[in-house]
Amino acid sequence: MNKITVLTPTYNREKYLMRMYESMLHQTKVSFQWLIVDDGSTDGTEQTMKEIIENHPDNFQIDYVKKQNGGKHSALNFSHSYIKGDYVMVLDSDDYLKNDAIEIICQKISLLKKDDHIGWLAFLKGNEDGTTIDTYYERDGEITNYAAYMNAGRKGECCDVYLTSAFVSYPYPEYSDEKFISESYLNICATVYGEYQMITYNEVIQVVEYMNDGLTFEGRVLQIRNPKGHAELWRQVSGKMFNSKQILKGAWLYIAYSFFDERSIDEILKKSFNKKVVLLNLPFGYAIYVIWKKKYVQKKLAG
Question: Per the confidence metrics, is the pTM higher than 0.85?
Answer without folding.
Answer: yes
